[in-house]
Amino acid sequence: MEKILLPTDFSDNAQNAIEYAFKLFKDSECIFYFLHVLPPTLGERNMDPESVTTEMLAGARALAKEKLEKLVEKTVTGAGGEKHKAEIIIKFDLFTDAVEKIVEDKGIDVVVMGSRGAGGIRDFFIGSSTANLIGNIPCPILAIPKNLEFETIDEIGFATDYTFVYTKKGLEPLFRIARKFSSNIRFYHVEEGREEWSERKEEVKNGIKKVCEGMNTSFFLLTDAPLNMATRLFVESREIDLLCMAAEKDNFLDNLLGKSPVRQMSYHSTTPLLVLHKDTLK
Description:
The chain is 39% helix and 23% strand. The protein has 282 residues and is α/β, with parallel strands linked by helices. The protein has a 10-stranded mixed β-sheet with strand order 3-2-1-4-5-10-9-6-7-8, with helices on both faces.
């Protein structure tokens, strides 16, 4: 049974991501954890913590519980939910800390969240709750752009730098999605500047091919274009339905802000993004 974490702030964006998740996993046996995180201290920033009464906390929890119950009833019933179970979780905590604890305690397989769906990866993440999670939890994160409607995933694009061979276990979150839809997985690598193809990259590529035996895969080498432009052209020309990339804990946000090639990556605003943690791929 797959375990899916669905954080929500009850916004339209979060609701859209939840509906996408139910359609993505409609034929799978799943338990969906609906999570709403409340701040550890309610009220104004300068409020004396002692003035936050038990009644205030209980009231906030009760209101969140009522909203979550209505959301579960609407979503699970609407999805036909015979294979689906749901559990409500309310936490008074920092958002990232709450998600990290639940991922560990519940053995979550993937976190599905809404995001802004801007034209580039920097705008997509910066200032969002998603940004604080990526690279900080080992669990895969699926970010759904605003207003995106679910469509069958025929084409998956996977950006790779060929620095190491992925393991079959590490790629299993991607494989599970690919098997559901008999998707094609398109690995692509972008050579920039003076970078050249090497024997080491060829070895890694062949290693990935072996790991992906049985899957519908193909490999592309893109040149004569910066990473962001090459990615955009690849996504649009191949009609990619899901883009996948790997992130590291320590430098992901720096990457996004322009201190390494990965952060330059941008993609079509209507393309969901699956982020796998590099440590889980090794």
